[in-house]
Amino acid sequence: MGEPECHSICALIEKLARERVLAKEEYVRLISECSEDMVHKVSAKAKKVAEASFGNKILLRGLLEISNHCRNGCRYCGLRCSNAGVERYRMSREQILERCRYAYRIGLRTFVLQGGEDAVQTDSWIASVVKTLKDEMPDAAVTLSVGERSAEGYRMMREAGADRYLLRHEAADAALYGRIHPVGMSHTHRIECLYELKRLGFQTGTGFMVGVPFQTAENIADDLLFIHRFQPDMIGVGPFIAARGTPFENESNGSLELTLLLIGILRLMFPKAHIPSTTALATLSPEGRLRGILAGANVVMPNISPVEVRGKYSIYDGKAAFGAECGEGISVLKKQLASIGYSVDE
Ligand code: SAH
Predict the structure, then answer these.
(1) pLDDT at site 115
(2) Please, are residues 57 and 218 in contact by the beta-carbon 8 Å criterion?
(3) Alpha helices for the chain (secondary structure H)
(4) Which atom of ligand 1 is nearest to the CA of 209?
(5) Residue 346, H or E segment
(6) 63, 65, 77, 194, best to mutate for ligand 1 pocket (most atoms within 8 Å of CB)
(7) What domain range is 284 assigned to?
(8) What is the model's pLDDT at position 336?
(9) What separation in Å is there between the alpha carbon of 207 and the centre of ligand 1?
(10) Residue 122 sits in a domain of what CATH number?
(11) What is the residue with the minimal CA distance to atom 7 of ligand 1?
(12) Distance between CA atoms of 327 and 333, rounded to whole angstroms?
């Protein structure tokens, strides 16, 4: 960055750190001028903010992919219903229990049950699984991420003891939302779901992909402003990664640098939010996971799915699910974290 350019960009970064929100045009400027130098500046500030909130501790959440059946046809997602190239599976109650017990034994105290909108895993079935988990391991938190469900369904899940819910808004701009989703999926409904989850007392997480086809800097600015209005407890952002068998299979992946910039911007906006360094980031680049942490993320979600289904939850191609990405690899993850001065919060 040249001097005069740095002057105004640096002033914007200072303003963001101070006021925790910018005007739309200011976000657009940061996003469209994203450079390595800017990423370093924002990361350094964001890392300090994360450390003030969480010390040098990283929270682990065990991610269990309970089903890859889905009734939806999201155009970016490898699990879209029309993708015949996917071998479908769904976990049974016993399998879910067994994997959560395993996660508990290796020290994890949050289980994230994620899956497609599987008509067989009904709201009441999910609620009953949650109840069993909470009865058996009351000191563990259960997070759900099973898409758009009815208000009544969410209520059952909450009453069964589910603590948190992740539902990325995907795109704050309704026109962009329409271009990346099939006819019949409603932007309004997705946003309503988020407000309903919050109203029911879930700790709620939202977020979006970076570099999904058709997304502009203005769209991302709108995402940041939506997140500012919504004030979530958790925020997930990861790069878009092309998935075989989808209309976007030949599109380019999202940018590592822009994803890191956005993690940093979100950390400056939300000093206390839980922000994961996502699997998509780790898939995009071998240093992705650690760079996400150095940019202000404070959560890692090791994969605790049964080994035999791990390759099948193929929301995008080449998804990292082994080594430091999974439950069995926690010691590898711990070593990697130690190499950048972090440790796992136990
Ligand atoms: N059915 C659930 C879980 C979806 S998977 C739901 O609708 O919330 C979790 C997240 O993965 C999605 O919200 C989406 O943002 C992300 N995702 C899906 N396809 C992706 C792709 N091709 N590249 C990167 N991220 C993707």
Answers:
(1) 98
(2) no
(3) 3-19, 24-32, 36-54, 93-105, 123-136, 151-159, 174-180, 187-199, 217-230, 256-269, 279-284, 288-294, 307-310, 330-339
(4) 15
(5) none
(6) 77
(7) 3-344
(8) 97
(9) 10
(10) 3.20.20.70
(11) 147
(12) 9
* Cβ-contact 251, 77 below 8 angstroms: no
Q: Which amino acid is at 298?
A: N
Ligand 1 mutation pick, 67, 114, 315, max ligand atoms within 8 A of CB:
315
Token code pair at residue 191? 């946003």
pLDDT of the residue at 327:
83
The DSSP string of 145-193 is E-----HHHHHHHHHTT--EEE-----SSHHHHHHHS-TT--HHHHHHH
CA atoms of 113 and 91, how far apart (whole Å)? 11
pLDDT one-digit tens code per residue, 64-75: 999 999 999 999
pLDDT tens column, 268-293:
999 999 999 999 999 999 999 999 99
Alpha carbon of 315 to ligand 1 centroid (Å):
6
Nearest to 132 by CA among 105, 164, 92, 165: 92
**Residue numbers of the chain with a pLDDT score lower than 50:** none
Name every protein residue with a CB atom under 6 angstroms from any ligand 1 atom.
Answer: 76-77, 114, 116-117, 145, 147, 167-168, 170, 209, 238, 240-241, 243, 280, 315-316
How are strands ordered across the β-sheet holding 203-210? 62-67, 110-115, 141-145, 164-166, 203-210, 234-239
Please choose, from the candidates 115, 107, 9, the residue with its C-alpha nearest in 3D space to the C-alpha of residue 65.
115
CA angle 263, 269, 270 (to 5 degrees): 85
Nearest CA to ligand 1 atom 19: 77
Per-residue confidence (pLDDT) for residue 205, from 0 to 100: 98
**Domains of the chain: total:** 1
